[in-house]
């Protein structure tokens, strides 16, 4: 076999342009652009084949014609979808609402418009317009946050791990912090409460057992070195069965008895009660404040549905002490996050929280999902035709973000199987589309869960699948 025989195996440009995937790309990106990239891609494959032939002439095996076509088309798709940016929007068809790997909570246009309005020019970030003197950036949303939660004062830093670290550093450096063994949680990325505590300069004192902790366990170890009683809400796992834990009121009473602050890390954090929508009870931030807890920390981009941030709310004298700590400046939020938070809290204050995408998706009605599933089904059926199978199925979505562990929400989804493409290959190709689509595979079918999809996502998904088949 010689080089000419190898080169004759490469498909022609005209034949490749008749492939459905490249026809769709021509419509989207223009025939001239696709043709130029196609020629570049064929040349890359040609050089690759020649190199392999020269390096391994004795064992060289010519790929079959279809395999070569697939490699070239895949390369064209990858090259044409390249942009100056690696960080790009995708379609979340997984049904996981707060998907950490996919950016957690999407923001509503109300917030996006406000952020652009503030970020495009100058603002009164730290300027008191009334007095004409330097102001405090947290004043822009502090009153709103205190009204919603019932707290005396508030502070926000760049994420919840930072909020916990700051509170421990400011209130318990060189002191002991008492925690139940059943609450020594690990959050995403292998960050653990004991490690955060060690970094803060506080000393961990464990009490009770994994499944049972009583109020006397805390009281037994309180001494002159005790700086804080810490409760970590187990929002990302459950301990069930033979269990016992100390409730907030008991722990608060104990702290107040010895004049020791009591702090609760709520983790996900939530401002509205979702039990009317079938969710299990999850304590709200105001529940914790009303139970007597002195300091509460929680995330901004999980159940709250806002930007990444770490909220700290509670007693005025404690917040004042935290604000004075040097770490506060290192962990402070910027003007765009501040604008997003103020707008988010305004939506809560005006009881417009269903405009927040995360909460809308969590409470999306079955009627709305049936409509979307039918829309996606009809569209996929029209582009797949006899090349595969499409069906609407009942399934379950997940909340994600370490929230409501073990609870799944009934949903509607659309499942597809293609005759000439494996589900794994379909998944890989969907990830490489000009608009990447991330779904899930179940029983060798590719699943699009409409709970986490907008109507715009559905239209784009139909277009992308049509391009592939």
Low-confidence stretches: none
Q: What is the second-level CATH architecture of the largest domain?
A: 3-Layer(aba) Sandwich
CATH topology of the largest domain: the name is Aspartate Aminotransferase, domain 2
Global Rg: 28 Å
N-to-C span: 34 Å
Instruction: Give the CATH superfamily of the largest domain.
Output: Type I PLP-dependent aspartate aminotransferase-like (Major domain)
Oligomer: single chain
The secondary structure category is alpha/beta
Tally of distinct domains: 3
Give a verbal description of the structure.
- This protein has 469 residues and is an alpha/beta fold.
- It has 3 domains: 3-80, no CATH class; 91-103 and 360-468, Aspartate Aminotransferase, domain 1 (Alpha-Beta Complex); 109-355, Aspartate Aminotransferase, domain 2 (3-Layer(aba) Sandwich).
- It contains 19 helices and 18 strands.
- It has helices at 3-8, 13-16, 20-29, 31-55, 65-80, 109-119, 139-149, 160-172, 193-200, 215-221, 248-257, 285-290, 316-323, 326-330, 335-349, 357-362, 366-384, 423-431, 455-468, and strands at 91-92, 96-98, 127-128, 133-134, 153-157, 176-180, 186-187, 191-192, 203-207, 226-232, 262-267, 295-299, 310-314, 388-400, 408-418, 437-438, 440-442, 445-449.
- The strands form 5 sheets. It has a 7-stranded mixed β-sheet with strand order 5-13-12-11-10-6-9, with helices on both faces. The protein has a 5-stranded mixed β-sheet with strand order 2-14-15-18-17. Strands 1-16 form a two-stranded parallel sheet.
- Helix 3 (20-29) packs across helix 4 and helix 3 packs across helix 19.
- The chain is elongated.
């Amino acid at each position: 076999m010689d080089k000419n025989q190898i080169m004759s195996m490469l498909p022609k440009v005209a034949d490749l342009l008749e492939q459905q995937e490249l026809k769709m790309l021509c419509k989207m990106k223009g025939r001239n652009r696709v043709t130029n990239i196609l020629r570049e891609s064929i040349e890359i494959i040609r050089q690759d084949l020649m190199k392999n032939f020269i390096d391994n002439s004795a064992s060289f095996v010519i790929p079959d014609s279809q395999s070569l076509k697939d490699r070239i088309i895949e390369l064209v798709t990858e090259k044409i979808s390249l942009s100056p940016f690696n960080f790009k929007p995708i379609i979340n068809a997984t049904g996981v609402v707060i998907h950490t790997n996919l950016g957690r909570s999407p923001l509503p246009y109300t917030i996006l418009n406000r952020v652009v309005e503030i970020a495009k020019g100058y603002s009164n970030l730290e300027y008191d317009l009334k007095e004409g003197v330097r102001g405090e950036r947290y004043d822009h949303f502090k009153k709103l946050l205190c009204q919603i939660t019932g707290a005396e004062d508030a502070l926000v830093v760049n994420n919840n791990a930072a909020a916990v670290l700051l509170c421990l550093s400011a209130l318990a450096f060189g002191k002991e912090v008492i925690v139940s063994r059943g609450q020594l949680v690990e959050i995403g990325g292998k960050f653990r409460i004991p490690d955060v505590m060690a970094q803060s300069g506080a000393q961990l004192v464990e009490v009770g057992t994994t499944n049972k902790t009583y109020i006397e366990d805390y009281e037994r170890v309180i001494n002159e070195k005790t700086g804080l009683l810490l409760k970590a809400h187990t929002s990302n796992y459950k301990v069930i069965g033979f269990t016992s834990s100390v409730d907030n009121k008991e722990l608060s009473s104990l702290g107040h008895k010895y004049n020791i602050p009591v702090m609760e890390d709520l983790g996900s954090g939530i401002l509205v009660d979702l039990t009317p929508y079938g969710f299990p009870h999850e304590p709200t931030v105001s529940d914790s404040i009303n139970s007597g807890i002195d300091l509460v920390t929680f995330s901004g981009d999980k159940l709250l549905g806002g930007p990444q941030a770490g909220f700290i709310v509670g007693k005025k004298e404690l917040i004042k002490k935290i604000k004075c700590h040097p770490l506060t400046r290192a962990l402070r939020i910027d003007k765009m996050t501040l604008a997003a938070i103020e707008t988010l809290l305004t939506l809560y204050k005006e009881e417009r929280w269903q405009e927040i995408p995360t909460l809308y998706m969590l409470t999306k009605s079955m009627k709305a999902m049936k409509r979307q599933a039918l829309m996606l089904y009809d569209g996929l059926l029209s582009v797949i035709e006899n090349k595969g199978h499409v069906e609407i199925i009942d399934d379950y979505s997940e909340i994600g973000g370490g929230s409501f562990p073990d609870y799944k929400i009934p949903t509607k989804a659309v499942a597809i199987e293609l005759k000439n493409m494996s589900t794994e290959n379909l998944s890989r190709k969907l990830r490489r589309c000009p608009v990447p689509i991330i779904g899930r595979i179940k029983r060798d079918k590719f699943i699009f869960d409409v709970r986490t999809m907008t109507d715009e996502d559905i239209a784009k998904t139909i277009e992308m699948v049509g391009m592939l088949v």
